[in-house]
Write a structure and sequence with these properties.
Length: 279
């Protein structure tokens, strides 16, 4: 079956307005395959299902937007950012904005925002990395995603064997998870370091900042240039002076928002805002 052009146009417009995700012409197959199960559940084809949405309430529209998000993730995804976090970002953050290393940890603790966290593997990977590298730190991670379904899954801290097989090193599994039936559950000690909430990157940043580090990985790729720039400007508002931004491997601030400074670390990069002098 081929989608009617007006069906595709309606869905692409809805998804762009509500999430900023761009569905270019040529992505009809994606819309069709993601909406097919929802349409079938109502005994309709996708065209009829979408036609009925034109008069539907916000909850039905939210389901469609969620269905069009791509939630691909894994533990310690791309590995390099987690090395950069421990080996470069953590010592710099602990040194403070003056760059003078003071012994011990800052009183205020470490505040991290994992934005667009999908089903939670990213914030829990951050928590495991820092629990090992800075066990005394008062660590608080705010993890957010547009998708309510993803946020609920992440907050449950429950993962299947198939999911833990994707990038979770065996020693981490043993140390930070317990068996729960056929699944694995994140330990309460790790879970209490992470709070999850639904949040749209098109809105003002979530509470819990200012943050020392913001992970914003593998989500800017779905946005147009103006939206990428707006999102990066909002991140600036909640990043503590001297704080760091970590992006996905295919993402950069270069040519998007030149306020950021790219700092090469290992085989990747992290980003920071140069310190501003007091006027
Ligand atoms: C590919 S996943 C990335 C997950 C994780 N950051 C990683 O790198 O593995 C992209 C996530 O971005 C979320 N997303 C898409 N548009 C968003 C928006 N406007 N606001 C917040 N999250 C959004 C999706 O729901 C999805 O879970």
């Amino acid at each position: 079956m081929t989608l009617r052009p007006d069906t595709f146009a309606f869905v692409a417009d809805l998804v762009r307005r509500r999430s900023a995700i761009q569905l270019e012409v040529g992505k009809e197959y994606l819309v069709e395959s993601r909406l097919m199960p929802l349409a079938r559940a109502k005994g309709q084809d996708v065209d009829a299902y979408v036609a009925a949405l034109r008069t539907a309430g916000p909850a039905a529209l939210e389901v469609v937007v969620e269905a069009l998000t791509t939630n691909e993730t894994s533990w310690f995804r791309d590995v390099q950012p987690f090395h950069a976090l421990v080996q470069h970002v953590l010592p710099e953050v602990l040194a403070g904005p003056t760059g003078v290393v003071t012994p011990g940890l800052p009183q205020r603790g470490l505040r991290i925002w994992s934005a667009a966290c999908s089903s939670g593997q990213e914030p829990y990977s951050i928590a495991m990395s820092l629990a090992d590298a800075a066990p005394q730190a008062d660590l608080r991670i705010v993890a957010t995603d547009l998708s309510k379904a993803m946020v609920d899954r992440a907050a449950s801290g429950r993962y299947s064997q198939l999911e833990v097989n994707r990038g979770l090193p065996a020693p981490m599994l043993v140390k930070y998870f317990t068996r729960s039936g056929v699944d694995w559950e994140v330990s309460p000690a790790l879970r209490q370091k992470v709070t999850f909430q639904q949040h749209n990157l098109l809105d003002a940043p979530p509470a819990g900042g200012p943050f020392d580090v913001v992970f914003l990985r593998n989500v800017l790729i779905y946005f147009d240039l103006a939206t990428k720039r707006d999102v990066l400007r909002r991140v600036q508002q909640v990043l503590r002076p001297g704080g760091f931004l970590l992006l996905g491997a295919a993402e950069t601030t270069i040519g998007v928002d030149d306020d950021w400074q790219r700092v090469p670390v290992g085989r990747g990069s992290v980003y920071r805002l140069p310190h501003r002098r007091a006027a």
